[in-house]
Amino acid sequence: MKPACSYAATHAASLADPAGFWAAQATHLHWDKQPENPLSQDANGFYRWFAGGELNTSFLCLDHHVQQGRGDQPALLYDSPVTRTRRSYSYAELLDLTARFAGGLREIGVAMGDRVIIYMPNVPEAVVAMLACARIGAVHSVVFGGFAPHELAVRIDDARPSAIICASGGMEFDRVIPYKPLVDEALAKATHKPAHVVVLQREFVTAELQAGRDVDYQTLLRAAPVPALPVPATHPLYILYTSGTTGRPKGVVRDHGGHAVALRFSMEAIYDLAPGDVIFTGSDIGWAVGHSYIVYGPLLRGCTSVLFEGKPVRTPDAGTFWRLVQDYQVQVMFTAPTAIRAIKKEDSDGRLARQYNLSSLRHLFLAGERCDPATYAWAQQLLGVPVVDHWWQTESGWPMLATLVGLEGMPAPRAGSAGHPVPGYDVHILDEVGEPVAPGTTGLVAVKLPLPPGCFPTLWNDDARFHESYLAPFPGYYLSGDGGYRDHEGYTYIMGRVDDVINVAGHRLSTGEIEEILAAHPAVAECAVLGIADSLRGQVPMGLVVLKDGQTIGEGQLEKELVAAVRATIGALACFRTVLCVARLPKTRSGKILRKTLRQLADGEDFALPATIDDPGILDEIRAGLARRGVGVAFETTKST
Ligand code: COA
Ligand code: AMP
């Protein structure tokens, strides 16, 4: 049943009295100790939600529903075409596994506040591990399986975990990816050494265990179950690393209390999901979308979540998402536009989709990158249900702009737009000095403080970076790093990053980090990495490289070496495949690389020659080089109002 209130009234109430609005939402949860203060500021002046309150997210996701009589309802439906496995876990079963695994973690010495890194594919054991950490107040940090050992090592040294939980391997299409050797390599590189590595042995690949340090996942499950430990609402639930503008990732922190309140609200207001409803989120638990809408959001709301280990295509075909909708009677599906583009590419006339009964589906939600209007229209026509593009970031943990289908009076979704501000978010478009711009004018997307519950209160171990990156540029606002505009009817359009972050198949990557890798090659004098338009992944990185004087290495050989270096350092997910050797990089007279101009050139866009360029002729040379490599053909990137 829809809440009685309208979108406009709800949004207005959330901004007029944030503390009162969210205090009311908090009453829907079970608190071990009621919060004293819905909204406060800490010693740094950072906002904190529900200080003084105590609760436990694992309790709210599991015990609460069992106590409410939903113990037999499916909580998790695991579907893995890559291993030909399907398993259903009821709330009671998931609780039992989690409570025992939490007991096992305690037995190997994991205590409240300790960090635990989880490096696993989309398997139920990973969800159990996340919930078990939460149960004992340990702080999990899930690292996406596509990251290479170097990236894992960086995260190990930053989070300093007392344990790592990993799978022996994952399956990419029909290719086995052994994970444990990657963990061993990361541990050899890292300075910090966790006491234990817990290994889930999968039947298709067995990992070697190091005596004394490594423990079998099943051993932990034999422990006695432990109850959920009430923790302060401001206690960290997890750290999720995301790319910043340098090689050092940012550890986004999420707390127990604000997160639970926000996600429960979002399940109802944004997705219109009630207890017992089924949601399928086609993402990975290693991303924010996976944390919030495969694991925590659905379980906090008492829904059933489909956990899919596979890809939208070739596992076994482009009909696989639609099979899930039919087989599990999915009401809400959520994925990234890139997944829909992959399906569209292989089943453009929807022949596979028509083989399934999709009548249960009410909405398709998209996020992770802007959905180009052509993909939007295709999905809408194929499915015949509203398609909702909504905008969010790892930092927010839940949507900031959306069409809230659970509220009344909501303007209908529109192709190209991410919709309207979600209650709690006061979204503004600012110019470069922080002044609001007129409707229709592109600017920097910022959110007025305080951010609502669920958003990150700070960065792990780095309050200064949190302040410098997000708050300092425009006092009183959170700066998102995205550019966009609002039209005259109030729809907001997010057009892409304005910093050195690019978005590859819904994965966020730092061009600065890739540049650091290219620059380390002995033949490279300087380089620039840009995101170029890609019809499947939205963007892919490419490198422009200037050779050191006297270097004779051919472009082909250099490309091979640099591609291998990026793959070995960041991982295959970077999709770095193209290098172009150029004589010089276009710069301003003060020596700054003209990245925006380069990007426009690579995307085949028209642009005005920057007045400050030191050597305009270099652009023609680069244009010719890009054409030679087949780069410069953009897919739809223009404004659509
Ligand atoms: N473990 C190990 N390797 C992984 C991996 C993982 N979890 N995920 C991806 N990779 C590897 C792939 O095997 C591939 O390696 P290759 O270059 O050797 O072939 C490389 O990383 C690139 O992967 P990807 O970009 O996923 O390409 P793909 O061809 O395998 O699939 C899509 C393309 C579009 C189908 C896929 O990217 C997709 O489903 N995207 C959805 C995005 C998403 O869920 N985003 C989350 C935010 S909502
Ligand atoms: P991540 O933190 O990995 O979730 O990536 C967040 C970034 O993805 C944002 O800063 C945007 O650049 C982009 N993004 C996510 N959702 C959308 C959307 N609906 N429209 C446009 N860009 C989006």
UniProtKB/TrEMBL annotation:
<dbReference type="InterPro" id="IPR000873">
    <property type="entry name" value="AMP-dep_synth/lig_dom"/>
</dbReference>
<feature type="domain" description="Acetyl-coenzyme A synthetase N-terminal">
    <location>
        <begin position="7"/>
        <end position="61"/>
    </location>
</feature>
<protein>
    <recommendedName>
        <fullName>Propionyl-CoA synthetase</fullName>
    </recommendedName>
</protein>
<dbReference type="InterPro" id="IPR020845">
    <property type="entry name" value="AMP-binding_CS"/>
</dbReference>
<dbReference type="Pfam" id="PF00501">
    <property type="entry name" value="AMP-binding"/>
</dbReference>
<dbReference type="Pfam" id="PF13193">
    <property type="entry name" value="AMP-binding_C"/>
</dbReference>
<comment type="similarity">
    <text>Belongs to the ATP-dependent AMP-binding enzyme family.</text>
</comment>
<feature type="domain" description="AMP-binding enzyme C-terminal">
    <location>
        <begin position="513"/>
        <end position="592"/>
    </location>
</feature>
<dbReference type="InterPro" id="IPR042099">
    <property type="entry name" value="ANL_N_sf"/>
</dbReference>
<feature type="domain" description="AMP-dependent synthetase/ligase">
    <location>
        <begin position="68"/>
        <end position="448"/>
    </location>
</feature>
<dbReference type="InterPro" id="IPR032387">
    <property type="entry name" value="ACAS_N"/>
</dbReference>
<dbReference type="Pfam" id="PF16177">
    <property type="entry name" value="ACAS_N"/>
</dbReference>
<dbReference type="InterPro" id="IPR025110">
    <property type="entry name" value="AMP-bd_C"/>
</dbReference>
<dbReference type="InterPro" id="IPR045851">
    <property type="entry name" value="AMP-bd_C_sf"/>
</dbReference>
